[in-house]
Design goal:
250 residues; 10 helices; membrane; transmembrane helix; Ccc1_fam; VIT1/CCC1 transporter family protein; transmembrane
Length: 250
């Protein structure tokens, strides 16, 4: 029997820009990045406090302070990074317009060289060059993509920053849930609370890891294990650093 061909996927699905669960796919990177970082950094605070045997109120205060400050810092960094990319693109685009106006023959030759390397020859090459250079916008877009290898991103700085911050707060608050609903006047940590925090954090990281795999179409188990491993390493380090510091400073 001839080997079975793998099932073909609808091209529209492969390039889908819809939503994965409740998140626009184009912003899934920001959600995953913010969520993983939020969960891991907050859980590291909890683990460090557990290792140092601090009180519940200290865990909550440190955790919330880290959650808000670090989340805001990450979103601001994301905002300026995205904005810088757009500003850089616009700057080079304006330069290309100037070169078309002032160095027209040189730019025409660059278009000719680009498409000659792609295999166009003779009359067909000249036709392609004529069509492209007859429209300034098309001409500039072609130079941006083919010469500078730059493409305008569709993401806006405000949305990327907002998604990052919201994800950081939502997922990053999970390790604190078991402590937020306990009596913060308690002078010592209950080991059960840390166990609940571990379980909740593992669930949150698993969901984020699965979401990442759903969009990238990679093995979901691998995606989940990657995020859990990263969180586990961070918690392990924080716990024993807290434990060592508590012994040194006490």
């Amino acid at each position: 029997m001839p080997p079975k061909e793998p099932p073909k996927k609808d091209e529209s699905l492969l390039h889908s820009r819809g939503k994965a669960l409740f998140i626009n796919k184009e912003y899934i990177g920001e959600f995953v990045y913010g969520g993983i970082d939020g969960a891991i950094t907050t859980f590291a605070v909890v683990a460090g406090a557990e290792g140092a045997s601090l009180g519940i109120s200290v865990v909550v205060i440190l955790g919330l302070a880290n959650l808000i400050a670090d989340g805001f810092s990450m979103s601001v960094g994301n905002f300026f990074s995205t904005k810088a990319e757009k500003d850089n693109f616009d700057k080079h685009r304006q330069i290309e317009y100037w070169e078309i106006e002032n160095l027209r023959e040189k730019e025409i030759q660059e278009i000719r060289d680009i498409y000659k390397e792609k295999g166009f020859k003779g009359e067909l090459l000249e036709q392609v060059v004529e069509v492209i250079t007859s429209n300034k916008d098309v001409w500039v877009d072609t130079m941006m993509k083919e010469e500078l290898e730059m493409v305008r991103g569709e993401k806006t700085p405000y949305k990327t920053a907002g998604v990052t911050f919201a994800s950081f707060l939502a997922v990053g608050s999970v390790p604190l849930l078991s402590y937020l609903f306990m009596n913060t006047n308690s002078s010592s940590l209950d080991s059960q609370l840390f166990l609940y925090s571990c379980i909740l954090t593992a669930i949150a990281l698993s969901i984020v890891g699965a979401l990442k795999s759903l969009v990238t179409e990679k093995n979901m188990i691998v995606g989940i294990l990657e995020t859990l491993l990263l969180g586990g390493i961070a918690a392990f380090i924080a716990y024993y650093v807290g434990d060592v510091l508590e012994k040194i400073l006490s």
